[in-house]
Amino acid sequence: MSVNRAQRVDLEVVADLIPPQSRVLDVGSGDGLLLELLQDTKQVDGRGMELSQRGVNECVARGLSVIQGDADKDLEFYPDKGFDFVVLSQTLQATRNPKLVLDELLRIGNRAIVSFPNFGHWRVRLSLFVHGRMPVNDDLPYSWYDTPNIHFCTIRDFVNLCDELGATVEKATALDGNGQKIGLSMPWWFWNFFGQQAVFLLKR
Amino acid sequence: MAALRARKTNNEADQPSSPVLRFGADKPLKLDAGTLLSPFQIAYQTYGTLNDARSNAILVCHALTGDQHVANTNPVTGKPGWWEVLIGPGRIIDTNRFFVICSNVIGGCLGSTGPASINPATGKPYGLDLPVITIRDMVRAQLMLIDHFGIEKLFCVLGGSMGGMQVLQWASSYPERVFSALPIATGARHSSQNIAFHEVGRQAVMADPDWHGGKYFELGKRPEKGLAVARMAAHITYLSEAALHRKFGRNLQDREALTFGFDADFQIESYLRHQGMTFVDRFDANSYLYMTRSMDYFDLAADHGGRLADAFAGTRTRFCLVSFTSDWLFPTEESRSVVHALNAAGASVSFVEIETDRGHDAFLLDEPELFAAINGFIASAARARGLSA
């Protein structure tokens, strides 16, 4: 359900935010790349939830602790603050109710880490502005009619949602088209224009 | 031949051809029915070697009509052990590496105390004088066996269907004794539909004039017809509509046309009759009543004020649940509700649903995705337990 990318640079950024031996829930764990990375480099107690049964079965066969589940429906079964970190990487835009999902992440985890493709990126704006078409490119490979990504947002939109939910942004990182971090000193509008992906560390 | 094998089953009840552990008056088994069972015995099999740390033991729990002969030739039927595809030297559950234990459940008929065993008070088979046995009673007896081996913590407890119920009961009753749990094609309770099917089976047994209120052994009889019908009905629930149709369709049995009679015209009829007939050779009718009842009574949430998550509160056991898409006896939703409860309890849990049209019985068959899941789960649990490969 996540955005197709050969290189998931955002995973490294996410992993950097997580201290060793943490309890981590990865929502939308896909093929288990992040969980494996965290287990190997951070010795975390990691769990995953993934929508596609194929992804789940592959993860379990590789020894990861993953269940089949839907971020929109199944987060309610987890207890309050059961995890140090709840990660939602490249999945928010594919949920039916992103606000509720984010609210659940903040309830379940002491901290939430959310990464998503920025719909405010200049290439997206260019596609709409010049061609009048929904963007289709390497990072956003789907056409509007077959995309699983039904709730795109921009970095600014996301910051607003965090405000609404009473979440504090402890750390934010924007990655440009080459997967390079954009300088911290840059203002939000700059991030929103040049950041292709964003990674947020949140607390409530 | 059938009669000879039938006699052999009866002998297996008291003098099993596998090892047996006997508990005297000093060690009664406390039953949920409110009475004590004493003396009693547990027949079991083991494979492999218990390591010095006693940390490599795996307990396999058998299903409704299973037995302790999980990975050796069955002494009654002469067929391979019921889970030899999974367990043995070099198999997924490698007996060169693990010490595998499987015991006949209490209430069974292959050597652990059950209705076919001799009641020491009367010198005759218990019949219905044996109190109703629950899944928890079976597990309590297994614990005594595990204690006998001096095993502090089982590396893994696994089983399918009724065996899966025992796995869940183990994890709930003795969380500190279970490092990892692998319940397959099971649920935390028996559904109304499942109780209904079991009741049909029991009524078939009890309607057989040879049943005699359960005292058939004393009269030298066996309610074979009733038990066969019970097995036929149950067997349908272990398969799926798609698999039945794929295998048999409307094919006729050894004939060109319908006979306009009530012989087994169709292959499926012939197949079911065969299943029923071979079953009565190896299983005791009263034991079938007790086994089905134990599953009907199972309701783990009810034992914890209706909240299933409370059955696993504070657990540190690693869980992996497996269900099959075409299993209509224990549909995926039953496993999923256990998964949700384990999530709520903060447990480490994996959950795999396997796509197959082979129904409930898929857990006993060669299912590559099932084996891949078990393999991955066991391997990671072994790493966490510090067991070398």
UniProtKB/TrEMBL annotation, chain A:
InterPro entries: Methionine_synth_MetW, SAM-dependent_MTases_sf. It comes from the Bacteria. Transmembrane segments: none annotated. NCBIfam families: metW. This is Methionine biosynthesis protein MetW. It comes from Mesorhizobium helmanticense. The gene is metW.
UniProtKB/TrEMBL annotation, chain B:
Gene3D superfamilies: 1.10.1740.110, alpha/beta hydrolase. The active site is at 161 (nucleophile), 327, 360. It comes from Mesorhizobium sanjuanii. One of its GO terms (biological process) is homoserine metabolic process. It comes from the Bacteria. GO terms for cellular component: cytoplasm. Keywords: Acyltransferase, Amino-acid biosynthesis, Cytoplasm, Methionine biosynthesis, Transferase. Transmembrane segments: none annotated. It holds the Pfam family Abhydrolase_1. The gene is metXA. It is found in: Cytoplasm. Transfers an acetyl group from acetyl-CoA to L-homoserine, forming acetyl-L-homoserine. Homodimer. InterPro entries: AB_hydrolase_1 (IPR000073), AB_hydrolase_fold (IPR029058), HAT_MetX-like (IPR008220). It is an enzyme of class 2 (transferase). It catalyses: L-homoserine + acetyl-CoA = O-acetyl-L-homoserine + CoA. One of its GO terms (molecular function) is homoserine O-acetyltransferase activity. This is Homoserine O-acetyltransferase. Its main location: cytoplasm. NCBIfam families: homoserO_Ac_trn, PRK00175.1. Residues 1-21 are annotated as: Disordered. Belongs to the AB hydrolase superfamily. MetX family. Residues 56-365 form the AB hydrolase-1 domain. Pathway: Amino-acid biosynthesis; L-methionine biosynthesis via de novo pathway; O-acetyl-L-homoserine from L-homoserine: step 1/1. Its EC number is 2.3.1.31. Substrate binds at residues 231, 361.
